[in-house]
Amino acid sequence: MHRQENEIDLIAKCIQRDRKACAELYATYSNWLYAVCLRYISDQDEAKDVLQDAFVLIFNNLSQYSGTHSFKGWMKKITVNTALGSFRKKNAAVLKDSKNVEDVVLIDTTLIEAFNLEEISFFLSNLSPGRKQIFSAYYIEGYSHKEIAQELGISEGTSKSQLHDAKKELKKLIELANKA
Length: 180
Known about the structure:
Number of domains: 2
Number of strands: 0
Order of helices and strands: HHHHHHHHH
Strand content: under 5%
């Protein structure tokens, strides 16, 4: 309870533009949100830019935080949306409209069990940018295809198609690693 009270106090001070409180909020959450950015943006400098853009939005919209949901979750959603929006602006050609894909590519979970989190992150980092964005948004953040489509300015079918292709690509990468 004490932590929640401190968080509420910190938010209130940030809304009043208390520089020390803003710096504390940034210091408390920036590393965690930077890691979120890196899930979507492979280039570290670009991820830092996205993080800064996300914090601008967070600070400018703090008064809209209702307190009914997790503050970290609220900030994470802003950060993910900022990363997806940045990706959309820079890579519109990567995400082409395509037909709905209903095929399911199953990755044998026993293939994945042999790897630690760092190795799985490596596989994800080797996905093509569009596929990485959609895979992360869908499986890591829990976005629906409709939400992904809205954030990236694509059709739901494209989101499904890109996810399908990402799973196929991951499956190949994992199988190759298991053979090595």
